[in-house]
Amino acid sequence: MNPDASTIAAGAPIEVDLSPVAEGQDIKVFWRGKPIYISHRTKKQIDEARGVNVASLPDPETDEARVKSGHDQWLVVIGICTHLGCIPIAHEGNYDGFFCPCHGSQYDSSGRIRQGPAPANLPVPPYQFVSDTKIQIG
């Protein structure tokens, strides 16, 4: 009555080496069948995200709450639009974040909804840093 290998693999944590990801670059990996965007944010992107009046956001959340302390340059989000489940495009839109071309939702460089019909921010999956250059998702 034990689960088969594919069932175990579907929910298993994954490790991602961040060392080849250049500043300003995004990568996409898959965890539990979902696209995960990992963004190596620039100082400009971090400053822009932290300069936003959180009370003005449709789904108020600080940038600091969406990243791991001491690793502010790394944003890890589930890349599924919270409107109808489309896949947004990284580094597009008015906020240097993510743009969903299907219905026009725009997220900032912290993955927070800023404009469009999406009701919530891009979710942050459970993850942790296992070293300065490696994360474990799940």
Molecular structure report:
The chain has 138 residues and is mainly beta. It has one domain: Rieske Iron-sulfur Protein. The protein is built from two helices and ten strands. The strands form three sheets. It has a four-stranded antiparallel β-sheet with strand order 5-6-7-8, with no helix packed on it. A three-stranded antiparallel β-sheet has the order 1-10-9, with no helix packed on it. The protein has a three-stranded antiparallel β-sheet with strand order 2-3-4, with no helix packed on it. The radius of gyration is 15 Å and the shape is globular.
Which shape, going by the Cα principal axes?
Answer: globular
Tally of individual helices:
2
Estimated helix fraction:
10-25%
User: CATH top level?
Assistant: Mainly Beta
Mean pLDDT: 93
Could you say how many structural domains there are in total?
Answer: 1
Distance between the termini: 24 Å
Strand content: 25-35%
CATH topology heading: Rieske Iron-sulfur Protein
Query: Stretches where pLDDT falls below 50 for ≥5 residues?
Result: none
Strand order of the largest sheet: 5-6-7-8
Structural class: mainly beta
CATH homologous superfamily caption: Rieske [2Fe-2S] iron-sulphur domain
* Rg (C-alpha, Å): 15 Å
CATH architecture: 3-layer Sandwich
Largest sheet: 4 strands, antiparallel
